[in-house]
Amino acid sequence: MRNQFSFLVVVVVLMAGILTVVTPASGQNPQRVVSVNPVGLIFGIADVEYQQNIDKSSAWAVEALYWGHKIVDWSWSAVGAGGSYRKWFFSFKGENPTAPEGGYWSVGVDALFLSATYASERASSFTFGPRGGVGYRWLLGSKKNFSISVGIEVMYYFGSIEILGVKMPYTGIGYSTPLSIGYAW
After folding, report:
1. Residue 5 pLDDT grade (very low, low, confident, very high; cuts 50, 70, 90)
2. SS3 of 31, please?
3. Most CB atoms within 10 A, among 16, 114, 140, 148?
4. Is the pLDDT of residue 1 over 60?
5. CATH number assigned to the domain comprising residue 179
6. pTM
7. How far apart are CA 3 and CA 5, in angstroms?
8. Are the C-beta atoms of residues 155 and 171 closer than 8 Å to each other?
9. Could you tell me where the DSSP H helices lie in the chain?
10. Cα separations in angstroms, 37 against 8, 18, 45, 48, 72
11. Which residues of 125-135 are buried (b: 16+ CB within 10 A; e: fewer)?
12. Are 85 and 64 in contact (CB under 8 A)?
């Protein structure tokens, strides 16, 4: 499962590199951000994201995700990817927000491959779902190249997994409170 996450990270980094070469930078604000969620790492969640401005007030983002947990006889993990569109609408500075800095709303979709093990029986499943949220990103430093962002997201996943003859649905609503740090250029 970790090899699959490593593959997804490599894909996101390669996509970012290709887009950096073919997408011209404009304006004074950075046009791209690569970030990770350091708090998630504490809880066994690895999340890396690449964001590219579309224009002065919007951007798209792709992310790779891995999480895994083990409790007594249960272990489960997920590896996946997602994409989102973001629109900037608010700035604490009292000026018009300019991507990638300020307040934004986002909509997107995630796809995850889930794996579970109980009493040495293993099962896997695929899930997907839409998500939406709001967040705020600060760009710090003299070149505005250090990024900190916070937000809240709500998602709805569709799916179930069957193990030892018991089908367990995981369809439903969930939320996350992402905190990320990154580099902007």
Report:
1. low
2. coil
3. 114
4. no
5. 2.40.160.20
6. 0.82
7. 5
8. no
9. 2-22, 38-42
10. 16, 23, 8, 7, 27
11. bebebebebbb
12. no
CA 108/CA 126 separation, integer angstroms: 17
The number of folded domains in the chain is 1
Task: Give the structural domain span for 155.
Answer: 2-184
Alpha helices in 45-86 (DSSP H): none
Q: Model confidence at 130, in pLDDT bands (50, 70, 90)?
A: very high
- Cβ neighbors of 151 (< 8 A, separation 6 or more) are 106, 133, 134, 135, 136, 177, 178
> Contacts for 108-112 with beta carbons within 8 Å, 24 or more apart?
108/61, 108/82, 108/83, 108/84, 108/132, 109/82, 109/83, 109/84, 110/65, 110/80, 110/81, 110/82, 110/155, 110/157, 111/80, 111/81, 111/82, 112/65, 112/78, 112/79, 112/80, 112/157
CA-to-CA distance for 63 and 91, rounded, in angstroms? 25
State both tokens at 174.
């969930």
DSSP state, residue 98: B
Burial bucket for residue 70 (CB in 10 Å: 0-12, 13-18, 19+): exposed
Could you tell me which residues are beta bridge partners of residue 113?
79, 126
**Cα gap 103→107, rounded to integer Å:** 14
